[in-house]
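Researcher: Quick test of sequence recovery. Tokens follow.
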């Protein structure tokens, strides 16, 4: 199912449809401020396993991040030093993935992981979905090869490629190709692991 949602006018009924799909255990594809991504409820074990299966990767080796709609949600699941908090507050929402030390509230599937990636994209559709759901999403970017970049940017082609593998695809317009900037904040000396779309301030 392909559901059109406009950034400048996020229809509440459509946002509720997406949130209901997530609550019922569904996996979605949704827009961020960088590339389109797979997503499921943070506490949906089957959904997380399905995303790993779609990406044909071992769950333990699949890079997934939490997507939050506010900084207070981040602190529920990860530890932030004063340095990390100030950096995150200055740069979010934005095209960044911050690597933080996890805490005891992590879902059971991730209890053995010491760190967690956290995103808060500058995209009103993504933020509205999370606000309606009431808790973060677990997410992982759509993958591609050099010959099929349109299959991660064009929602109709995304549906053609992944429509039978997920429960709902949110059409938020043309997606990007440049991933988020990854910043390691696990110590007081923060550093960039991967330079992407986000420029730190």
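Model:
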């Amino acid at each position: 199912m392909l559901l059109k949602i406009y950034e400048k006018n996020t229809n509440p009924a459509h946002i509720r449809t997406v949130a209901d799909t997530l609550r019922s255990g569904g996996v979605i594809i949704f827009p961020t401020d960088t590339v389109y991504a797979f997503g499921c409820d943070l506490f949906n074990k089957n959904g997380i396993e399905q995303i790993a299966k779609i990406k044909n990767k071992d769950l333990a080796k699949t890079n997934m991040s939490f997507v939050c709609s506010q900084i207070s949600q981040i602190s529920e699941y990860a530890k932030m030093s004063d340095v990390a908090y100030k950096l995150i507050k200055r740069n979010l929402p934005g095209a960044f993935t911050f690597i933080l030390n996890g805490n005891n509230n992590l879902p059971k599937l991730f209890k053995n992981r010491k760190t967690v990636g956290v995103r808060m994209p500058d995209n009103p559709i993504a933020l509205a979905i999370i606000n309606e759901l009431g808790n973060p999403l677990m997410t992982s970017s759509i993958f591609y090869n050099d010959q099929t970049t349109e299959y991660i940017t064009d929602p109709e082609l995304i549906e053609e490629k992944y429509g039978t593998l997920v429960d709902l695809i949110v059409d938020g317009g043309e997606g990007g190709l440049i991933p988020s900037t990854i910043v390691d904040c696990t110590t007081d000396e923060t550093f960039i692991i991967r330079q992407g779309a986000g420029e730190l301030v």
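The chain has six helices and eleven strands.
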